[in-house]
Amino acid sequence: MENFDFIEMKVPAKAEYVGIVRLSISGIASRIGFTYEDIEDLKVAVSEAITNAVDHAYHEDDDGEVSVGYGVYEDRLEIMVADHGGSFDLNEVKGGIGPYQGSESVEDLREGGFGLFLIEALMDRVEINNNDGVVVLMTKYLHETEVGLDDDQISTTQ
Fold this sequence. Notes:
The protein is α+β, with helices and mostly antiparallel strands. It is built from 5 helices and 6 strands. It has one domain: Histidine kinase-like ATPase, C-terminal domain (Heat Shock Protein 90), CATH 3.30.565. Helix content is about 35%, strand content about 25%.
């Protein structure tokens, strides 16, 4: 199993905290060596995933949380956004996750989940787990040539 660092943070499910997560992704991605353009794409994709959770997972009077996990590898960054607010049990998340199919009804995941199309356009790989809340797992490779060459993602590693 390849080595990686895992960073996890939880923020209140409120729009004003999206900026804090954007700052964290910016710092992590620049440390790995992503280009400015890739960092901007990562920030937009993560913002979409969090905003989707904030808008749809909780009622206004709920004190919900959004969990964000970063799998930091040598060649890629994997980001998990979960709207149930619990800690990530990585094996559980990865065991129940599958590729996002464009043909799936996005409404089944979240009403008005058009953000998923944008996330899919910006990231190299997008997977969804909606067993317990919704978990979006997004992967961005450091070098585009590595896309698809290395299939032992966080999601399939035992």
